[in-house]
Amino acid sequence: MMEATTNLQLDQLLEELYTHKKKWAGLSVAKRIQLLKQCQDDLLAESKNWVQSACKAKEINFDSPLSGEEWMNGPLVTMRNLRILIEVLEEIQKHGRPDLKKQDLKKLQSGQCVVNVFPKNFWDKLLYNGFRAEVWLQKDVTEEDFFSNIAWTYQKKSEQKSTQQNDLEANTKEGKVSLVLGAGNVSSIAPMDVLYKLLVENEVCLLKMNPVNEYIGPHLQKSFRALVEAGFLKIAYGGADVGNYLAEHELVDNIHMTGSDRVHDIIVWGKPGKEQNENRKNKTPKLKKPITSELGCVTPVIVVPGNWSQKELQFQAENVANMVVNNASFNCNAAKVLLTWKHWKQREDFLDLVEKELVKSHARKAYYPGSEEKYVSFLRDHTEAKMLGRRKEDVIPWTTIFDVDPKNSQDIVFTTEAWCGVLAEAPFEADNTKEFVKAAVKFCNEKIWGTLSCSVIVDPKTQKQLGDTFEHAIADLKYGSIVINHWGALSYGFVYTTWGAFPGHHLDDIQSGIGVVHNAYMIDKPEKSVVYGPFTMPFKPPWFSSHAQGHHLAKKLTEFEHSPSMFKTFGIALSTLRG
């Protein structure tokens, strides 16, 4: 357990950041690239220790395939973020802005602009064959707006002084100090939030580690040593009292947090009860500074009915099960409710296969505080819930709650994020597939809590038959990330895409939060990201927790993201084939 940072120490850390914020705001692109490359090297050297600490805390055998989750959820995506930011900064250095061209931008019939952001190079096409991703802009953004405002902070100086493209003008001349309240579940969230604040929003950061995974802090200290020693990043420890002290500190300009809506509302409105109620009623937030946030979701998976082969049923069942079991289901994008068509002939077969895959999955330690209480609340409301394993101390068995009536939209499975291994299913009455898709989209938008991410599973033949109905469904879904045929986490991990709630939430009804992170192309006013993937894959994807070579593959991918080479792809291919 890390010793809490004292108020005096916090003051000193903020003072140092304050004295360096102007320097960071004006730091050249070339110097930024240099710092990030040093972080890459230090992260590579520290990655094994990082994963070992995470495995120890979650009682995972470091030498087992399951440790691949900790490689992937920690050093791998963090390294990818660093690499992509370096590439984008090099584009800015060369062209004055990220290298997105007019042909990357398209307009829908509605007039909404959509930007193709993935794949962008040979490596993307090689490693993620069949995948593509778009960022949809908010409806009032024009093509001219897009190119004028992309990476605005970096563009402005180069427009004024094109011979000095390495110079950078700050959003404000003096710079800003941002407080990042780290997440306690996935170890890459905090460092990737920091990278966004530093490189996209141009602000120095104080990262307060979450007590749940504070053991990652020393590894971040070493991995980001170049930024720490330069005075642009500091790391602190402690609980709610430390967070409150920092949130109200005069040297903190703004806050970004990843966590729960309950904690967010305590920070913004005050203690639950009289203080919070009065502040809400009077519209007088306790917090007097800007706050952005990512706060989770009851993540839906729309299963569009089709005539699937046994192989396709098996792949998608394993796909859904892995959306549940990853990280013991302590993910803000873990699959929580399947939306199916009641009259789909293969519905029972599919659900049976999903349960079989969950049964095969390794039982996990319920390491996150409060998960047992959350689980009990679901069992209390659904006595028919089916446990797919033994319930014992510190272990919550994978549990299904199938055949929930969607007419009861206030059911706990729709209104409350099951922060544990619970998967619900709701079958819809509809005349046909098109009517089912329309009903499922409407239900997601109006009845299910949260707007962070969702998945839509649809076979190519059915998608073609749906025609405009499918296109309208994707356009109508009000989620920050929509992933076709795969887990919503791909939008998190691709980094080019945005990660955050669908825009429109307010402090008094925060749901999944306000703002985005990742967004490596620094796109202004994004609405959502849409990732398209193949219905099945010839080999088991590396993000499947059931991958037999998960630990070896994720380690090799981390090394690849540090410095891509054709030679490294051979080792990746070998581990993939053995998966």
Structure characteristics:
579 residues, Aldehyde Dehydrogenase, Chain A, domain 1, Aldehyde Dehydrogenase, Chain A, domain 2, 2 domains, 11-stranded mixed β-sheet, 5-stranded parallel β-sheet
Describe the structure.
By secondary structure, the protein is α/β, with parallel strands linked by helices. The chain has two domains: 7-107 and 147-294, 3-Layer(aba) Sandwich (Aldehyde Dehydrogenase, Chain A, domain 1); 299-532, 3-Layer(aba) Sandwich (Aldehyde Dehydrogenase, Chain A, domain 2). The protein is 44% helix and 15% strand. The protein has 22 helices and 18 strands. The strands form three sheets. The protein has an eleven-stranded mixed sheet with strand order 1-2-3-18-15-14-9-10-13-12-11, sandwiched between helices. α16 links the parallel β12 and β13. α2 (29-58) runs antiparallel to α3 (68-95). It is globular and about 65 Å long. It starts with 6 loop residues before the first helix and ends with a helix. Residues 157-172 have low confidence and may be disordered.
- Based on secondary structure, the structural category is alpha/beta
Record the strand order, biggest sheet.
1-2-3-18-15-14-9-10-13-12-11
Mean pLDDT: 95
Strand content: 5-15%
Q: Please write the CATH class name of the largest domain.
A: Alpha Beta
Which sheet architecture does the biggest sheet show?
11 strands, mixed
State Rg. 23 Å
The named CATH superfamily of the largest domain: Aldehyde Dehydrogenase, Chain A, domain 1
| Number of continuous helical runs | 22
Spans of at least 5 consecutive residues with low confidence: 157-172
Annotated CATH architecture of the largest domain: 3-Layer(aba) Sandwich
Total domain count? 2
Overall body shape? globular
Termini Cα gap: 36 Å
